[in-house]
Structure formats: structure tokens, C-alpha cells
Amino acid sequence: MNEPNVNPHPASAPRLPLLVAVFCTALSVLAFEVALSRAFSVLLRYHFVFLAISLATSGIGLGGLLDYLTDRWFHRTLTPLTHLSLRAALLAALYPLTIYLLFATPLAAHLTSVWVVSGLCILPFLVAGSLLSRIFAEHSQAGGTLYFADLVGAALGSFLVIAALQALGATNVPFVCGMLAALAAVGLAYSGRATTPARALSVILWPALLALLLANAHGKYLDLPVMPVRDDPAAKPLYQELGDPRIGAKIVYSEWNAFARTDVVSNARANGTTDPKDDLYIYTDGEVPTNMLWYPGKMAPLGSRLRSFIGFPAFEWFRPEKALLIGPGGGLDILLAAAVGTRQIDGVELNPSIPRIVRKFGDFNGHLYDRQNVRIFVDEGRSFVRRSPDQYDLIYMALTKTATTASNSLALVEGYIYTREAFEDYLAHLTPNGKVALVFQEPSLLLRTMLTALEALERDGKSRQEALDCVMAISMPEAFQGLGPYRHLLVISKSPFTLAESQKCASQTIALGFDPAYFPGAFEPVPFSWLTQKNATTPQFIQAWNDWMFGAQHLNIYPRTDDQPFVVDMTFHMPGQFWWLLVGALALGAIFSVVAISQQRSGGATAGLGAAVVYFACLGVGFMVVEISLIQKLVLYLGYPVLSLSVILFSLLLGGGSGSLLSQRWGTDRARWVAGYAALAVVLYGLALQYGSHPVIAATLGLDIRVRSLITMVLLLPLGFALGMPFPTGLRAIGSRAERFVPWMWGVNGLLSVVGSVGAMIMAKFWGFSTTLLAGWGIYALVAALCLTGTIFLPQEKKTELH
Q1: What is the pLDDT of residues 574-590, one digit of tens each?
Q2: How many Å apart are CA 325 and CA 439, to the nearest integer?
Q3: Is the entire prediction scored with pTM above 0.85?
Q4: What is the dihedral of CA 357, 358, 360, 365, to 10 degrees?
Q5: Which of 107, 430, 616, 639 stands the most exposed, by the fewest C-beta atoms within 10 Å?
Q6: Integer Cα distance of 664 and 683 in angstroms
Q7: CA distance 471 to 655
Q8: Spatial separation of the C-alpha atoms in residues 213 and 17, rounded to whole Å
Q9: Strand 471-475 vs strand 430-440: parallel, antiparallel, or unpaired?
Q10: Is 3 within 8 Å of 129 (Cβ atoms)?
Q11: Residue 323 in contact with residue 230, Cβ under 8 Å?
């Protein structure tokens, strides 16, 4: 390859208003996507949220394809700046209008319809996609500079949206997004020859949206709706209970943050009255709540009630001196520890709102979080344990992973609490006779966790029989299991229980009114006897248990690892909706491209277009596969999930913007070389990062979160730099031949990004995130091979064939 030359046909740099418009649009799109995810995560199950948002964000790609189809009509009817300004103005109006239609009209009764939700939410993304693709088409030779503005806007959005969610909540952020798009409309309308109506509209929008934002922030006219009362597995418990007059649930306090919406709820008694001493319930994102008990400062009035809780035996049996509570919630776990005289109580809470709420209601709960022997940390529990220098007599968690039906969840964040590596971390932070105690709702999750813990114990040097001697389990009597989600207790010991200890704990269990499930040597009923008496392997046990429980319908209770942390998803397959989304996006992109190519003249143009479609499709899939895998693999290092997401996105996007800006230096005649070497750099650096960063991460795990964030940025910025070069380089190369094809390639890239996000989930479930990340590097290797070994972009002399 010869020395790179400056573009032989340089285009004038885009004017500042155009860059600001791209910047504001990209920032608003990312913020709106996050706000939608936050709002729907409170109302609906995770799998539904992921599906709906994926369908909606496919609009960015579809907007480009739509722009390709309508390009000639717009040029006949409007001046370029007029139709750009009008699209930005329409985008500004659609952000809050979408939320209003979904949450404040009769459409709210259909929020569990994926077609209603995604059909409305796709509209802003369609307009944003058409706006950005048109700007890139009309200024394709400045694609590197424009893409720099795009990625920097998204990078800043990944941080700024956290502050916006903290201050305003998810239902108000769309108004801010509208104001950003309105700024883009103003800049576009006044940067050139836009029509007077377009200019007037752009000026009116910003103050109108600001007024609506202030009104809603003060009066809360637009808030999350009460869900219809029906048996719908997609809806969260809280918002169904609020709509059920038999329960009499009432929200007494709410707080938004970037992690969740947290609600404090009181329930009426059977006669419709309430008592100031009745329990309050703290819901995180509308899920199974944590109890906040009235506590007058004396344990006696609560004694019998605490003894009837399924988690109490773990404290009564072992009476720990020092306990770690992962997810102490409303304070029930602290009361359990205090009841047996625990000297030091550490609590790790993922949701930062809960400590504030518990302290706010301190007069009700006896100021539990402010007791002298209680320390509360806001952190991800597993990450906290890995970094902690302390040893504990008991590590306790109750429903730390949100309890959902296995077939309806693909949640990732808190799945790391129950993996094999997690139990290795817990065992390493126990005193010689320390215990881990976990409370579950579903017996299937208890069995999966038990099998996972057995693997960890075996990796710690124990035989299978010794590992089985380290486990105990009890259950609530069947007659009481319908009264709440706290139904099963699993205890894992660092050292094996003696027969005398097992018999003593079994006797105490019966005395407390619970049902023994498994006590090594003392009580080993089916199905546990298959492990102890028949020496069944894990696969044999799972097969026998499924045949015994379900017959033909089998659940996947195989142990989970950090590489496949899908703990509460117990299906052997991916939900059908995900396959339909994957196939649908692929089919739509392929059909559109085949039809579009067939309409062109035969010869080199057709071949070049087909290669370009493959190129942009690979970039769309590859970037999302790499991004999602890195986010999941680094969340334990950084600890706090929202911060992890922001740091990783900011690093990749900021690095990508820098690479995009540098790529503008080379001419389009060097496009395939620039793109090819950049893709090759992604592969080589990515592999080095995947296999060479472990010593750095291990050595710096105990450092302050700010230092770890800085280290993460340093590691990811070079990768982002290389990732940011192929896309704008490709757009410039396509635009130099025929700029009307730029929206088409933009659309293919956007549509296939959805394929990448869904495909990453599917691959991770079946093969793990490490293999998924390798697949991402493989896709970029394919991009490099296509560029460096063939003509991925049309040669200059074929330009006339495209018109």
C-alpha cells in the first residue's frame, strides 16, 4: 500500500449548525432509548422490554431505507435545509408525544402488546434515522467529520442521561430529548435557505417543550399508568396490584434514578382500613417487594414474626458474629441478624434509592440503617465481595435476583450473583466454618443454585460427596407458600456438616414450623437422594428430575457460569419472539437490497452494490456483538451496572469519534485500505484485550472506582478508535460514486445492528459471552478480508453506472 494521500476531491467542511444538528440528534436518540428502557422496565418484564426496544430502534435503519425510497420526491418539493429542519422538528414533537400516547391515553391498556408498544415507539427512531441518513447523504464526503459529531453526541448522552434520569425521571426525559431535537431544527432552519414556516416552527418548539417539561415535572400529569388487572406474565406485580381494588395498594413515596424507579407502597386491610404500624413494601422497578417492618426499637414485639420467616433459621442455627447481607432492602435482613445478636452487619444494596428511602422512613423502621453496628454500601454485591478484604461468618441474600417465571426472563445484571464463580468468591470470603444462605421463590432456582454451588465446592478441592455434605435446604409448609415469595432456603457451608450438626438443624427446622428438604445424612428424600445414594451425575440428575416433575416439559437447571449468567432463564430454547425479530430484520434488509440492486444496471455497479451491502451489514452486526459482550464481561470489574454501561459506551463512542475524524484525512480512493486495516486492528487489539487484560483487571480490582473507570477507558479507547473508522470511510466511498445510495447503506447498517444485539443474546445463551466476543472479532476479520483482498467499493470509473 502506498502512503495515504489527502482526498483528491476534498469537500468543504460541514458548517457548524450541521454538526450541531447531528450531535443533538444522536444525543437525543440515545437518551430517549435509555428513558424508554427505564420506563418500560418498571412496568414490564425484561424480555418484553428488550424485544420492544429492539423493534423500536430498528427504526433508525428503516428510516434510512425510507429516505432512500422518498429521496427524489423530497428534492422535487422542498429545499434541502427545509426538509432537514422539518424532520428535526417532527422528531422533537414525537419524543414526548409517543410517551403521552402510551401512558396517558386508552392505549395504556395495551402496554403488554409488543406490537402496540413498538409500533408507537418506532416513530421517533424512523424520523431520526431518515434525518441522519439524509444529512450523511448530502454531505457524504465529510462523513468522517459528521460521524465524529454523531458518536461524540452519543458518548456524552451515555453520561448525561444518567443525570437527567436522576433529576427528572424517565417520563420527563423525553421532553429534554425533544428540546435537543428542537435545537437541531433551529440550527438547520437558520443556517441557510429554509422556508419561513420551517423557521417559525423550529423557534416555537423549544419554549413550548420547556413549558411542558416544567409543568409535568411539577404536576406529574404524565406518569406511569396502572396496568389492567389480568393474568399477563409480561406485566410487573406492582402495577397490576395498583389496579386491583381488592388489594388496596397505594404508592406513598416514589423516587427515580438511573438504575430503577423505587416505590414505597402501603396495602389496605381486608376491611379497607390501614394502620400506621402495618408493613410498607419497597418495590424496585415494580418487582417482588422487600418488606419494611414497623420497628419501635425493641425486638420483643417482632420476635414471633421474625421466627416465622424462612430466612430466620440461617441466623438461628449459626448465630454469626459478622454477617454480609447482599440486598438488605427495607431492613428485614438487618432485623434477622440483630435478633440473634450479630455483632457486625454489612449490607450491600444495588439500588441507591433504597438506603435513602429507609433513612427517610427512619421513624417507622427504627433507623435500622443508622445503627452503630450496621454499615451500608451502595454497590453490586458480587463485585463488592470480590474486592472486599473481610471474612464473614454468614453471607445472606433473599430474592436478590428478581423472581420471575423462567420462560419470561433473559435478565443479565444480577445473574452474576448465582454463578459458579460467584460461589467461589463467597467461599473465599468466609471464615473456616462460614456459611452462605440464600432464599428463593421457585424450587427450580434452588436446585440450579445448589448444583452450581456443588461445582464451586468441587473446584475448591472437595469430592462430590464432601460437597453434598456442605449443603442444607428447607421450605415453607405448602399451605403457607401462597402467602409470599419467600419460600425456600438453601445453605452452603465452607466445611462439611457433621451428622450431629445436620440432625440438630433438622430438629430445629421442625420446631420452627418449617419443612426439611435436605439435610446431609439426616434427611435425604427424592430428588436429593439421586445425588447422594445413586451417585447421579449432574446431567443424569437433571434428566431424572425433569422426568419426575414434568414428563415431557423440561427445564434447564444446569449450573451457570459468569460466561453464561442467564440464571433465571430456565428454558432450553430462545423465546420465539427473538427468533422472529432476528429473522425479520435479516429478511427485510435482504429483500430490500435484492430489489434495489435488481433495479440498477447490470455489470460492475450491481456487483459493487452487493459487496457494499455485505460490508455495512457486517459492521452493523459486528459492532453490536462486540459492544454487548464487552459490557457484560466488564460489569463485574466496574461494579455498579449503570456506571459500567456509561463508562464502556463513552469509551467506545468517544474513541470511535476520534477514529472517524482521523479517517477523513484519506481520500476515497484509499477507502478499502483504510477500512481494511482499521478492521484488522479491531481484530488484533480485540483478541489482545480479551486474553491479555486479565492480569490488569485482577491487579487493579481493589482500586477506587474512579481509577478502575479510568483504566477501563484506557483499555477501550484504542478499540473504539479502530471501530470508528470503517463506517464513515465506507459512506464516503459510496457517496463519492452516488450519494443517493448512502441512506440505503445507512439503513442496512442500522437494521443489522438489531440483528447484532439479538444475535449476541442468542449466542451468549447457548455458547457464552467469550464465544460471542470471538464471533464479533470474526465478523471484523471478514470485513478486513473483504476490503484487503477485493474491491468492496466500486472503482472510480463505474460512477456513471450508478446514476
Answers
A1: 777 777 777 777 777 77
A2: 12
A3: yes
A4: 150
A5: 107
A6: 22
A7: 48
A8: 25
A9: unpaired
A10: no
A11: no
